[in-house]
Amino acid sequence: MPVHVDVANIPEWVDAERLLGSGFELQTTNPGWRRAHALLERPRAADVQARLRGVGIGGRALDVVVSPRLNRKVVRAARTEEARRRRHGSVGFSRSGAQLDKEGQMSLTPEALALQLGERADACTVIDACCGAGGNAIGFARARCEVTALDVNQSRLDMAAHNAKVYGVAKRIRWQCVDSTDAIARLHADLLFIDPPWGEDYDRMRVRLADLPFLEQLLGKAERFPRTWIKVPPSFDVNDLPRARPEAFFGTGKGDRQRVKFLLLELTSAGPKTSHS
Ligand SMILES: C[S@@+](CC[C@H](N)C(=O)[O-])C[C@H]1O[C@@H](n2cnc3c(N)ncnc32)[C@H](O)[C@@H]1O
After folding, report:
1. Domain spans in the chain, listed from the N-terminal domain onward
2. Using CA atoms, how far apart are residues 10 and 57, in angstroms rounded to an integer?
3. Sign of CA dihedral 115, 117, 123, 128
4. Does the domain made of 3-88 have the CATH classification 3.40.50.1820?
5. Is residue 21 over pLDDT 80?
6. pLDDT tens figures, 167-202
7. What predicted TM-score, i.e. pTM, was given to this entire model?
8. Over the range 136-165, which residues count as b (16 or more CB within 10 Å of their CB) and which as e?
9. 197: CA distance to ligand 1 center in Å?
10. Most CB contacts within 10 A, which of 43, 54, 58, 111?
11. Is the pLDDT of residue 273 over 70?
12. What does the pLDDT average to over 147-175?
């Protein structure tokens, strides 16, 4: 017999059908936030619960209520399936020969998503303020952007330069081993891209701007760039940057197609008019 599934705290800028699957009716609650309801067979209800209960998007945890409650066997099966799915996420670098250290493995932007961002940048000049193993710098360069890639860590920068050769785009990237918070003041580009370190144990329910001190510091010096894109955890509280336009990026792998991998916050020099409540 079908059960009722309610999911609250879905930001309006998230593709709800992708997140939840089909069959949900949406209703706006507070401005900018929605609630979804569906009557689902138990295994699907258990899947929604296992994937989404307590997951933070945009600064609020999704609230999933299933009624009547599901029995333990169905819940356990859904959790096991979700754990299995997690092993089949989006591909980092697909080309053989690409190198990654432990932090790179954790923080690399998956190749398909880095390329999407690159194509959207439309062949402009980009500063990648913290390039890591090069996931985004290479994505931008593959999409014909001219990139200046910065990182404070020389060995990671070397790795990124090696990876750029593997992808045949080394000529479009200049590398600088610097602290971006110092260097940014003397650099110019159409687009400033910031993918700050989140840390392995970032809060999956709500990350505040103050939890990302490097980002906070850099933003103070980024105002003169025409466009700034910031990659933040899904749980980042968008109210902490009300001038930024948020967008959720989902995975492209079999196991994470329905999972928000990160938020992209876009700041333009004029600043969008919307604010979030
Ligand atoms: C999340 S990783 C970037 C991952 C990259 N976007 C990718 O897809 O491969 C963040 C990087 O910021 C670098 N970083 C941290 N503090 C920095 C600073 N003050 N200046 C420049 N880079 C910094 C770290 O060394 C790390 O490589």
Report:
1. 3-88, 102-268
2. 7
3. negative
4. no
5. yes
6. 999 999 999 999 999 999 999 999 999 999 998 899
7. 0.95
8. bbbbbbbbebbbbbbbeeeebbebbbebbe
9. 6
10. 58
11. no
12. 98
Mean pLDDT to the nearest integer, 103-123: 95
Closest CA to 168 of 62, 97, 226: 97
**Residue 192 CA to ligand 1 centre (angstroms):** 14
How many whole angstroms separate alpha carbon 102 and alpha carbon 56? 25
- Write down the pLDDT at residue 274: 37
Number of helices and strands (H, E) in the chain?
9, 13
Three-state secondary-structure class, residue 216: helix
Q: Is 3.40.50.150 the CATH classification of the domain at 102-268?
A: yes
Ligand 1 centroid to Cα of residue 112, in Å, is: 19
Task: Report the alpha-carbon distance of residue 83 to residue 119 in Å, rounded.
Answer: 32
Q: Which two tokens stand for residue 219?
A: 């933003």
Mutate which of 107, 128, 140, 192 for ligand 1 pocket (most atoms within 8 A of beta carbon): 107
DSSP 111-172: HHHHHHHHHHHTT-EEEESS-TTSHHHHHHHHTT-EEEEEES-HHHHHHHHHHHHHTT-GGG
* Phi, psi (rounded to 5 degrees) for 164: -65, -35
CA of 229 to the centre of ligand 1 (A): 14
**SS3 of residue 79 by DSSP:** helix
| Residue 149 banded pLDDT, cuts 50, 70, 90 | very high
Q: Which residues line ligand 1 (CB under 6 A)?
A: 107-109, 130-136, 150-153, 156, 179-181, 195, 197, 214
Please write the tens of the pLDDT for every residue from 254-264: 999 999 999 99
